[in-house]
Amino acid sequence: MAMDKNSTKYTFIFALIVCVICSFLLSFVSEMLRDKRELNEALDIKKNILKAVSLREPVDAKATPEELLKVYSDKIEEIVIDGEGNKVEGEVATEVERAIKESQNNIVPASGKDARFPLYIYKEGDEVVAYCIPIIGKGLWSTLYGYFAIEPDAKTVRGVTFYKHGETPGLGAEIEKDWFLDNYKGKSIWDVDKSNLFPVIVKKGKVIESVQSEKDHYVDGISGATMTSNGVTAMVDVWLNAYEVFFSKIRK
Amino acid sequence: MPAVLTKQDRKLVKDALWDNNPVTLQVLGICSALAVTVQLKTALVMCGALTFVLTLSNVSISLLRNFIPSKIRIIVELSIISSLVILADQFLKAYMFEVSKALSVFVGLIITNCIVMGRAEAFAMANGPWKSFMDGLGNALGYSAVLILVAIPRELLGSGSLLGFKLIPDAMYEAGYVDCGMMVLAPGAFFLLGIIIWIQRAISGYSEAN
Prior knowledge:
The complex is a heterodimer. Chain A is α+β, with helices and mostly antiparallel strands.
């Protein structure tokens, strides 16, 4: 061999070659599979919207992507609203949502007339069954992405899902499990006494042990995942407040 | 076995499967063995991913073994292993999205699976590519065998199904049968793993003291 294997120069050159080959290979494969991956992710998002709104006739777990997309396009109407709660024509909800996800300050949604929010409406025929909004916020390690659906009275929770996060399996990652999500169903986001918004709070411990007045607004916490639970509480609060202008219009 | 496999090749695979099994004898790779064995399907995919990473990392590190500068040996091994893991992860995300979501971080964590690093450092750095391939395959199969042995009772007793098919008839549930909740949790895997290690060592006569 021409060069001394233990020389600094050889070491550097070798490291460089390994890095270049590895990164080239990875970016090539990643680029090659990008379309397929994005298709899966888009489908997964639709699946989660359908799950959040709790379809009257749930989609079979073994449904093909085509069947799922058909149910989605039949039942879900995607609209865009502005910060004052008025419908905006000519904009696509999924693209508005993508823009929110890509913006740096996605934890605090914008407000005012120029702000844009996606809204997914579940309809059976002409009857509105649920409104579904995205919820995005920080957990402990990662950003949590999910959906929050409420009944047409704009007071009662219909369903919640989380579809993307990087929390610890067995602890924070429990937020995507049914036992946690089912907690939310039927809870109230409306404080009857004060007539104002009261977003659902993730409690420490079990709701059943708390006082009656709290039961409607609290859900069972996850032991060992206080930070994730607090993150969920905060993001539900932030996004419900952001949509409150719209919900106050439909609330009777 | 085909004739191309010499006695030595067979010994490499057999060793890793039985006499020197990475999980039951060396007690490596326990973290993922606990995490992904609630269902047989996730366990199988994990085994596939690990087999892919372990055999290819062993082969490529063995091919490079005479060129890798010893000072940066570990980091080069790690670069190759992590590249392969990311490749496996990308393919899972593209073609097996549901399973990849269920496996969550554990595919990525193959990078830190001691078996992969251990075989690269202990075997591939000192042996030729074919032998390294056989060694990687043997160790991956040894790991897979244990994972599957843990996953089958866990899914069967914990969820009453195998590969998602309900095996316990509804009549049994109506008669008062209840799924064993512990099998779904990590302690279930600990007990099973302990029992498997016990049985294996009882048969092979291995003991730490020797």
